[in-house]
Amino acid sequence: MGIPFGRYQLLKKIASGGMGQVLLAKKGEGDFEKLVVLKRILPHLVEDEEFFTMFRDEAKITMRLDHPNIARINEFGVEAGVHYIEMEYVAGEDVRRIEKRAAAASKGIPIGIILRIIADAAAGLDFAHKAKDAKGVPLGLVHRDVSPQNILIGFDGSVKLIDFGVAKAAGRAQHTATGILKGKFPYMSPEQAEGDELDARSDVFALGIVLWEQLTGRRLFKGENDLATQRLVRACQVPAPSSVEPSVPAGLDPIVLKALAKEPKDRFADAAELRNALEDFALHNAIPTSASSLATFMQDLYAERIAKEADPRFFEEDSGLTDLDVGGLSKPATASGATVVDRNKLPPGNATQVVGTQVLPPPSQTSLPKVVAAVVVLVALLGLGGWYATRPGVKPTVETVEVPVKPVTGAGTGETPPPPQPLVVRIESEPPGASIELAGSRVGQTPFDARVEKVKLPVALRLSAVGYETLDAQLTDMTGPLLSLSLKKKPAVVRPNTGGSSGKNPDIKTSR
Fold it and tell me: Which of 145, 163, 226, 477 is catalytic?
């Protein structure tokens, strides 16, 4: 039996971390029951304006995107003080896990399947790139985080893009701070790694990386750490896929290399051009790329798991919901109802509209559907970085930064809670050797390992280097163990010509 959460019954924990949880749930009753995915954030993170804005913007942006190759977001709301997004449930798996499972089974992924996946993902990207608001004004949307983990493949052969959480649309409230890179480093375009303005061609490049890696079975831009990866992306040295993996048809090389051109002007003009090139190649070379072929591949690869998860008892066993009391996430629904943004009640043009506060009925206690083909949907909510492996020959020095403690307000129980674990973060920069200030005090240069007590967060961070613009950021409890920042070069100073129209210095005399 699920755990009640407003109109929902929570069935299974998909993922969790310091930011919140991703949960499989059902809503409705009897024949109208439906599986959905809820992405919920911890209540204290709602107070972090930057994170909450990004969370809300993901809902607002994706609710405008109604396309078969984009996972739908149905609602954004608040229930019992907990903010959540209700997302479409995709019975399938992400490309990274499919790749690993196929390799473990010694099957590999056929070229036709790879082309189908990338072509469909390109179709979803093209729709998002060209989306407009209710007034017909282009949104200027760029995904910014196209990667194997954010492409889901359904057991029915469907392909869905997910996680527009780091997307940036023109005119929206969420702005990326100068120099702070968002996305996965191995799947960035050169201009994204430089911190420059992006357009749709940056996503084309990222999708080109996924295509190159799936064809060759190797990683294209993967250094020993994030900064090394950034340098590889900026250098943009891309070998032809057929030179790395001889089984790749040489005719694919020019398509892949055009998607991965260093200069945006040399790439496909949009994702639709990439899709058309792939489908034309498959057609002319009689390579099967149908959705039914993809579905057959998935059902064969995951036959055992599909059969297991079809059992109605699957979601009732080992649900992993025992820790829902953390952060107040297990609060029962109250009669006050929930504030909901519903995509089905948006005005024409899919402009976002708040549908007010609704008083919701008690949650249903009905049982699960008897036949459910389900799979874990992994969403990027587990953190902002991976643990850092110290480079050979560099022995980091962990410093404790003294920051004034902010007073804690609000009613308490009188008991002293155990102290939280401190934030330990390695700060790196491009270029290295940048001066670091924390809470207004200079503490060293990059690379630098800082240790800050959680009660003292957030802490102001400033990086500065000669010839570069000062970068201001913050250390918060969302900061991962590695923070890599790129400083932007100052524009060259053009000195005015004081030598008159001839351009010669009037103080210099000749013998003539």
Answer: 145
